[in-house]
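lol ok so funny story. i was supposed to be doing the assay writeup but got distracted and ended up predicting the structure for this chain instead. priorities right. anyway since i did it might as well share w the group, maybe its usefull for someone
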Amino acid sequence: MLLSWRPKDLPVHVVYAGHRLLPTRARAFVDFAVEFMKQELAAGG
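and the output, tada:
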């Protein structure tokens, strides 16, 4: 059944030119993604 189905793990990369200023929305996404992944990895997700 679909309730027990889990997708394959995939690597995730956030790549940006660190020496340049990021638009606010891009910086917000990077910050969100990092925190989300930290929580997921800590939870064993």
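The chain has one helix and no strands. Helices lie at 24-42.
back to the writeup now i swear
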